[in-house]
Specification:
It is built from 15 helices and 2 strands. With about 350 residues, the chain is mainly α. The chain has one domain. The protein has a two-stranded antiparallel sheet. Helix 3 (about 45-65) crosses helix 4 (about 75-90), helix 11 (about 235-260) packs across helix 12 (about 265-280) and helix 13 packs antiparallel against helix 14. It is globular and about 55 Å long. The two termini are about 20 Å apart.
C-alpha cells in the first residue's frame, strides 16, 4: 500500500475506534450480548435476500449506464459492485470505486475513463434517489416519523443534547432545502451554457492558484462527463425507477432486522433511518464505515422511536445490521477480486491514472 493510504488506514482505525467507543460507552457488555440473543432469526433470511437482491440490481443498473455504446456482461458489473464494496470495507480512500472502474474498463473494453464516468453517474443517481425517498417519507408521513411534541435526548461526548420534534422537523426542512440547492447545482453543471459560465467565473478569481483552479476545472468536466449518461429522458426514467427499487431494498432490509429486535419501525421510518445512516456514512473517513454507520443507526432510531440512545437493543441492532452486510460482501467480493486478477495495487494504479487526468 502507498504510504499515504497506510497513514489513512491507521487514522481511519483510530477514528472508528473513537466512534465505536461513543456508541458502546455506558452500555454493559452483558446487556449488549443479551440484546443480541433476543433477535428472532426468522427475519434474517428475508432481510439478507432483499439486501443482496438490491446489490444484483445495482449491477444491472450499472450495466444499463454503459448502453447503448457498450454491452458490458452482467457478471462484470455485478462482480465489480461486490469487489467495490469489499475493497471499501477493508481498505482506505474508497479504493473500491477505482477498482471496479479498472475491472470493467479492462474486461468490458470500455476504458477506465468511461467506466469511471458511469460510477460518477451512479453516485449522482444514488444521492438524488435517497433524497427523493426521504422527502416523500418526510412530507407524506411527518406525524408517523416524529411527533411535534416528542422530546429526545442524545448524549455526545458526555454532553446530553435535547431535541424536540418541532426542532427536528425544522432542521430536516432546512436540510432538504440545501439538498435541493445541491441538485440545482448538479443540473447547472450538466447544461453546457451554465457550465461555461461557471468555468468563466472560476477564472475570474485570480487569487486562486492556477494548479488548484485547473483541478477544479478538470473535476467539473469529469462531473459533466458522468452526467452525459443521464441525458436521455427515457433512460433516465428507467434508471430512476431502478434506483428507487434499489434503495427501497436497503430500507426494507433494515426494517426487517429491526423487527427481529422488537423495534417497530414503519416503512416511512425505515426510509428516514436509511437517509440518516447514509449521511453518517458519507462523512466517514474509515474503511467499512465502522463506528459512523453505528452512530447513525443508533441516533436515527433514537430520534424516530423516542428510545434512549443507550438502549442496548439499538447498539445490537446497528452492529448486527452492519455485520450482515459487511461479512458476506467481504467473503464474496475478495475471492471475486482474486479470480478477476484485481488487486489493491491495480486499484491504486487506477487511482493514480484518475489523478493524472485531473
Amino acid at each position: 500500500m502507498k504510504k499515504k493510504h497506510l497513514l489513512q488506514l491507521c487514522i481511519g482505525i483510530l477514528i472508528s475506534a473513537a466512534a465505536l467507543w461513543y456508541v458502546f460507552h455506558g452500555i454493559p457488555i452483558q446487556e449488549f450480548f443479551g440484546a443480541f440473543k433476543t433477535f428472532k432469526y426468522i427475519w434474517l433470511l428475508p432481510a439478507l435476500a432483499v439486501f443482496y437482491f438490491g446489490i444484483w440490481l445495482r449491477g444491472l443498473r450499472w450495466r444499463w449506464l454503459f448502453r447503448p455504446n457498450y454491452d458490458v456482461p452482467l457478471r462484470y458489473t455485478v462482480g465489480g459492485i461486490f469487489i467495490c464494496f469489499a475493497f471499501n470495507s477493508i481498505f482506505p480512500a474508497r479504493a473500491g470505486e477505482f477498482a471496479r472502474a479498472y475491472l470493467v474498463g479492462k474486461r468490458g473494453k470500455t476504458g477506465f475513463s468511461t467506466a469511471f464516468a458511469t460510477v460518477v453517474s451512479e453516485r449522482l443517481l444514488d444521492g438524488i434517489t435517497i433524497l427523493v425517498l426521504f422527502v416523500a417519507a418526510f412530507f407524506g408521513a411527518q406525524k408517523s416519523l416524529i411527533a411535534p411534541d416528542q422530546v429526545n435526548e442524545v448524549t455526545v461526548l458526555g454532553k446530553t443534547i435535547t431535541f424536540k420534534g418541532v426542532q427536528i422537523m425544522a432542521s430536516v426542512k432546512t436540510m432538504v432545502m440545501l439538498c435541493m440547492i445541491l441538485i440545482a447545482g448538479i443540473v447547472a453543471v450538466s447544461i453546457p451554457t451554465t457550465r461555461g459560465w461557471m468555468l468563466k467565473i472560476l477564472h475570474v478569481f485570480k487569487f486562486i492558484p492556477a494548479t488548484f483552479r485547473n483541478k477544479i476545472e478538470a473535476l467539473i468536466h469529469r462531473f459533466a462527463e458522468g452526467l452525459s449518461a443521464l441525458k436521455d429522458p427515457k433512460r433516465l426514467f428507467g434508471l430512476g425507477i431502478l434506483s428507487l427499487i434499489i434503495w427501497l431494498t436497503n430500507a426494507w432490509s433494515m426494517m426487517l432486522i429491526a423487527w427481529g429486535f422488537g423495534l417497530e419501525i414503519s416503512p416511512a421510518q425505515s426510509l428516514a433511518l436509511l437517509f440518516i445512516a447514509s449521511v453518517f456514512v458519507s462523512m466517514s473517513p474509515t474503511p467499512g464505515y465502522w463506528g459512523f454507520f453505528e452512530a447513525g443507526m443508533v441516533i436515527g432510531v433514537s430520534l424516530l422511536l423516542g428510545i434512549d440512545a443507550k438502549d442496548p437493543r439499538l447498539v445490537s441492532y446497528a452492529i448486527f445490521t452492519h455485520l450482515t452486510q459487511w461479512i458476506p460482501i467481504v467473503l464474496i467480493g475478495l475471492p471475486w477480486a482474486w479470480a478477476s486478477h484485481v488487486s489493491v495495487g491495480e486499484a491504486e494504479t487506477a487511482e493514480a491514472e484518475a489523478e493524472q487526468n485531473i
